[in-house]
Design goal:
This protein has helices at about 15-25, 40-50, 60-65, 80-90, 105-115, 130-140, 170-175, 175-185, 275-295, 310-325; strands at about 5-10, 30-35, 55, 70-75, 95, 120-125, 150-155, 190-200, 210-220, 225-230, 235-245, 250, 260-265, 265-270, 325-330, 335. The chain is of the alpha/beta class and about 350 residues long. It starts with a strand and ends in a 7-residue tail after the last strand.
Length: about 350
């Protein structure tokens, strides 16, 4: 087994820069050997800041670099497929930020490419590595809440992120997808029906899904609700409840630090203000595990093929925006007609 893995990062915006910094100094068995970005100034700047020996402006050039043994894709959602295909052509294992792609057709292409190339593809759902979410999963596995039957997830941004502006990928693709994956993980089951609604409450400049609500029905009868709000104004508020037949787990909190101010006017405390403040540790743990698995030849815990059902579900939601409300059959990829007792 090689001692260290040579990694190239495609896309060095906010999350790409974070991944690059982690790989450069905080992931013990990684070597950051190249970065790429469509913006040459950004690529050159990050390369200089992190002492990276090579930078480029294309996924193809980075993937072709012989020092790059595996690729991290953190580019725009719309460019994920390009990076996956480039890595597959050059037989490089891939870590791709969520969403894997922005359409079912692209997902099928990506899965086919890595399967044919016999390389591994892991999709970046960092909450599976967050200590609080991991603790909840362990409690479920230990039987502490009996059989899990309901997941209730809230995802509210402090202010409107770029992905939720009129030119972005949208809440279903960018935000709620975390909770879709969490619900599948916590319930250890697959979605069979979807009900999704969305609204534009923040006005011009935002997408029609700046407020959204999704209900999921699972194969064994469990349910989940996922709420997203693009700009709540008070915090980065991400919390999850998992109810079981013998108890309930609560994950997440508004407070960033354990300090409260109590005066005659009341009690006050700070709040989480940014997603990196909340999940920064999870991103580092995630990449550390991916590098270890890649070097050891172990399978990834969240593969592209394993996400096919989730992707089908996801694009059922997107279609639901166009036709108002829809139930989605994740097997046939066709909308269902409403039946008695389901609306």
């Amino acid at each position: 087994m090689a001692e260290r893995l040579g990694v190239g990062v495609i896309g060095v915006g906010t999350i790409g820069r974070q991944h690059a910094a982690n790989l450069a100094s905080l992931v013990p068995r990684a070597r950051l050997v190249a970065v790429a970005d469509a913006n040459p100034e950004a690529a050159q700047r990050v390369a200089a800041e992190l002492a990276v020996p090579a930078w480029s402006t294309s996924a193809e050039e980075l993937a072709a670099n012989p020092d790059v043994e595996a690729v991290v894709i953190a580019s725009s959602h719309f460019a994920h497929l390009e990076g996956i295909l480039a890595a597959a052509r050059h037989k490089k294992d891939v870590f791709c930020e969520k969403p894997m792609t922005i359409s079912l057709e692209q997902a099928d292409q990506a899965i086919a490419a890595v399967t044919e190339a016999r390389v591994r593809l892991q999709v970046g759902f960092m909450r599976r590595y967050d200590p609080a979410y991991v603790a909840a999963k362990r409690q479920i596995e230990a039987g502490s809440i009996g059989s899990p039957v309901l997941v209730k997830a809230t995802h509210r941004n402090l202010s409107v992120p770029p992905s939720l502006t009129s030119g972005g990928a949208g809440a279903f693709v960018d935000s709620a997808v975390h909770d879709y994956d969490n619900a599948r993980w916590f319930l250890d089951d697959e979605v069979v029906e979807v009900h999704a609604v969305a609204a534009n409450v923040l006005g011009p400049g935002c997408r029609p899904d700046d407020l959204s609500l999704t209900t999921l029905r699972f194969a064994r009868g469990g349910l989940a609700t996922v709420e997203t709000y693009a700009a709540c104004g008070y915090a980065y508020d991400v919390r999850t409840e998992i109810a079981g037949t013998a108890g309930t787990l609560f994950v997440g909190q508004l407070r960033q630090t354990g300090c409260e101010l109590a005066t005659a006017a009341g009690v006050a405390h700070d709040t989480v203000r940014h997603w990196l403040a909340r999940f920064g540790e999870a991103y580092q743990i995630e990449l550390t595990d991916w590098v270890r698995r890649t070097l050891a030849g172990e399978p990834s815990p969240v593969t592209g093929a394993g996400l096919d059902t989730a992707m089908t579900t996801l694009y059922g939601y997107v279609l639901g925006l166009a036709i108002g409300e829809t139930l989605w059959d994740t097997t046939s990829r066709e909308p269902l007609q409403p039946t008695d007792g389901v609306d």
